[in-house]
Amino acid sequence: MAQTNPPFMSGVPELLLLRLLDQHEMYGYELVRSIRKVTGEAISLGEGVIYPALHSLERNGALKSRRKPVGGRTRVYYALTGKGRQRLDRLQNDWRRIQGGITNALELPSHA
Amino acid sequence: MPRPDFGGLQARLLRSGLSPRRVRRTITELDEHFDDLVDEAVANGDRVQAAERRALQDLGDVHQIAALIDERPELRSWACHHPRIAILLYPLACLAVLPAVPLIAGVTNATYVGRWMACAVLSGVVTASIMLLLQLSITLT
C-alpha cells in the first residue's frame, strides 16, 4: 500500500531545523541565517515563525535547549536529541521519496 | 520607534492557554531576535529607525506568529488541557504551600531579613551594654 504523503511543505521548516541542528547547537537567529545560507535564500520565512516550530519540536522531545548568556543577551541554544535524530531520518526519507516522485512526474514527455 | 507589539502578543498567548513561563520565553526570544536584526541592519549601514522598520518586516507579523502557536496544542499548558483537574488541584496546592509561605518569603528576601537580624542583634548588644554600665554604676556607688 502506498504511504500517505505528509503535508510536506508545512514540514519543510521542521526538516531544515533538524538537519541544521544535527551539525551543532544553534539559537533562533543563527538558525534563520543558516537556513537562508544553505538554501541559497530560496526559502525565506517570516523569521518569528521559527520559534513555534522550535518549541513544538522541543516539547515533543526532538530538541533540547539551554540558556547561555552571550554579549549581554541570553541566547536559547537548541540541540538535537536521539529522538530528534530518528525523526530527522524519517523526514529525510519521506522528503527523498516525494522528491523522487515529483522528479519522475516532471520528466514525463510533454506533448509537442 | 517601531517595535513589534510584544505586549499584545503576550496577552494573546496567555489567553490561548500557554503557560506564563512559555509566554515569557517566547517573547524573550522574539525580542532578542528583533535586536539581532536591528544590530545587523545597523552594521550594514542602515540608520537605527530604518533598521528597526526592516527588522519589524523581517521578524514577521506577531499575529501570524500567535496563529502558528495556536495551531500547536502541545504548546498549551497542562491546566489548559485538563481545566477541571486544574480547578480541583490548584486550591489544594495553594493550601499545601500556605504554611511554607513565610519560609519562602524569608529565603526570597534573605538580604533584608539578614539586615533586620543584624540590626536587632546590634541594638540588643547596645541595650545590654547600657544596662550593664548602669548596674555597675549602681553597684560601685
Entry keywords:
heterodimer; A: 112 residues; alpha+beta; Arc Repressor Mutant, subunit A; 3-stranded antiparallel beta sheet; 4 helices; 54% helix; elongated; disordered N terminus; B: 141 residues; mainly alpha; 8 helices; 0% strand
Report on the structure:
The complex is a heterodimer of chains A (112) and B (141). With 112 residues, chain A is of the alpha+beta class. Chain A has one domain: Orthogonal Bundle (Arc Repressor Mutant, subunit A), CATH 1.10.10.10. Chain A is 54% helix and 16% strand. Chain A contains 4 helices and 3 strands, in the order H-E-H-H-E-E-H. The longest helix of chain A is centred in the last third of the chain and has 25 residues, at 82-106. Chain A is elongated, with a radius of gyration of 17 Å. Chain B has 141 residues and is mainly α. Chain B folds into 2 domains: 1-76, no CATH class; 109-141. Chain B starts with 5 loop residues before the first helix and ends with a helix. The model of chain B has no long low-confidence stretch (mean pLDDT 90). The chains are: A alpha+beta (112), B mainly alpha (141). Chain A binds chain B through residues 28-29, 32, 45-49, 51-53, 55-56, 59-60, 73-76, and chain B through 4, 22, 25-26, 28-30, 32-33, 35-37, 58-62, 64-65, 68-69, 71-72, 74-75.
| Fraction of residues in β-strands of chain A | 15-25%
Query: Helix segment count of chain A?
Result: 4
Q: Main beta sheet of chain A, described?
A: 3 strands, antiparallel
Which stretches of chain B are low in confidence, meaning pLDDT under 50 for 5 or more residues running? none
Strand content of chain B: under 5%
- Biggest interface between protein chains, with counts per chain? A-B, 19 and 25 residues
Overall geometric form of chain A: elongated
Number of domains of chain A: 1
**Whole-number average pLDDT of chain B?**
90
- What topology, given as strand order, has the largest sheet of chain A? 1-3-2
